[in-house]
Amino acid sequence: MKPTLYSFWRSSAAFRVRIALNLKGIEYEVIPVHLRKGGGEQLQESYQALNPNGLVPLYIDAGIALHQSSAIIEFLEEKYPKPTLLPTKIEDRAWVRGLAQDIAADIHPINNLRVLRYLVGKLGISDEQRLTWYNHWVDKGLASLEKRLSKDPRVGQFCYGDQPTIADVFLVPQVFNAFDAKISFSGYPTLHRITQNCMQLPAFINASWEHQVDAEGKNPEPS
Known about the structure:
Layout: E1 4-7, H1 12-24, E2 29-32, H2 45-48, E3 58-61, E4 64-67, H3 69-79, H4 90-107, H5 113-121, H6 127-151, H7 166-180, H8 189-198, H9 202-207
Parallel strand pairs: 1-2
Antiparallel strand pairs: 1-3, 3-4
Helix pairs in contact: 1-3, 1-7, 4-6, 4-7, 7-8
């Protein structure tokens, strides 16, 4: 049986896993979980029985259920080592993982859908204030990445050299979110260039928003 990925077309965490699966050449079945419909299908008991944290993605392979995109991608890297998503040198592997965590740990959590919903629904902030919050933290994180990647000699067509790594797997979904929020990329030429290079590859194209079975719109365009 094919592995199963519980996914939402716009979820950046699920997007990461879709890219990694595609880069590894792994066939998989997508089961959509709509994060907005009916208050969020991820909050239903039937889904939380599978994944108690009520988030996507959830990846099931041979009866083994895995959650959290970072853990799933590391699992894929170990189970299917070719093509690799990590550099050869141990210090470069750590550097690439650090780039991925800049996004997964420092940018994404504080502009996640459930966080934004809490700001509006529980704390009563306006849509304008929500957008200000979102843009502040995304811009802060992207500026840090741009500064790091624009000066490091290890950067090539992609975040590390000329083959995509887990850093690119994490970068592109976050950039999609920023495009959708109409954040200007005039100050992030390196991030924009790397994203454009990634989006020439079938693995990234086929994992993108508009190519999902549950897609409700097109890929966002840069401002």
